[in-house]
Specification:
The protein has about 325 residues and is of the alpha+beta class. It contains 12 helices and 10 strands. The protein folds into 2 domains: about 80 residues, no CATH class; about 230 residues, Bira Bifunctional Protein, Domain 2 (BirA Bifunctional Protein, domain 2, 2-Layer Sandwich), CATH 3.30.930.10. The strands form 2 sheets. It has a 7-stranded mixed sheet with strand order 1-5-6-10-9-8-7, sandwiched between helices. It has a 3-stranded antiparallel sheet with strand order 2-4-3. A hairpin with a 2-residue loop joins strand 3 and strand 4. Helix 2 packs antiparallel against helix 4, helix 5 crosses helix 10 and helix 7 packs across helix 9. The chain starts with a helix and ends with a helix. The structure holds 3,4-dihydroxyphenylalanine. The site of 3,4-dihydroxyphenylalanine (DAH) has 11 residues, from strand 9 and strand 10.
Length: about 325
Amino acid sequence: MDAQALENAALAAAAAATTIDEIEHVRVEFLGRKSELKLALREVRDRETGMALNALREKLETAIDARQTTLDRAELDRRLTEESVDVTMPGARVRRGHLHLITQIRREFEDIFLGMGYSVIDGREVETTRYNFDALNYPPGHPTRSPLQTLFLDDDTVLRTETSPAQIRTMEAAEPPIYVVCPGRVYRRDTPDATHTPTFHQVEGLAVDEGITLGDLLGTLDYLIKSLFGANRESRFVTHHFPFTEPSVEALVSCHICDGSGCPVCRHSGWIEVGGSGMVDPNLFEFVGYDPERYTGFAFGWGLERIAVLRHGIPDLRELWRNDPRLLGQF
Ligand code: DAH
């Protein structure tokens, strides 16, 4: 190749290079140790040819350097724009968790009673048959005492079937006046289905003092019903049976769906059962050493899942244990 053709080819190649790699290749091809120009320079014998080839080398070096500088700057620009962090952009949103529906209702329940001067206490989830049954006046042979209904850890120890044993432990540990609520998990030998789970939550309530009457119980529960379900709900009470209360009372709330006129949710009665209660049976006072002539009391035990189902129309209790954020996130 003559000098002019070489120059044209090199300048064209330099101008055509669009990346740093490409310009590096052009440099090696036209100015590298094995390039035509370098080989020719090595062969030079006369001064004129030497000067001409060196001038060409300088010219090519300048052109390639200039192109390299341009490409370096373009690369820098690209990185500065592409890799820069825009601190004003909004960040990726972190999903915020919240309390489980049952925990929310438990706290609400606690707040209602804290507001009336009650204390919140803990019971035991593992109980003796003495506290879970005997002290609560369950007669021998009562079906709840059967291993078909209750989870036994050994002959004398069970997972509590209700929060009621907390009544006994509270009364044993203190003298009246007593005003406590005890929220917690209870266990029953049930196969899970839409309306049963082997574990669920109750809140036990106990008030023992001089002169406590059934009217105090009904007034307290009416206030509870209006606090939980709305000020325009009505309450009603029907007799029931529990071994540890006499009389025993089931509380009903006017149906929030039909407002009392009758619908499938309230089985056309206009009323829905919300929980058990009653006046503390004097046998319990005798068990803990209280004077039944001096003290009277009321107690109740309501299920939190039941409140959740009624208030929020949850169709299947098992949903509360599945921990699917699509469901729990709605509350
Ligand atoms: N322990 C009862 C249950 O699990 C609920 C209950 C009813 C608790 C009446 C009470 C009560 O304290 O007085 O079905």
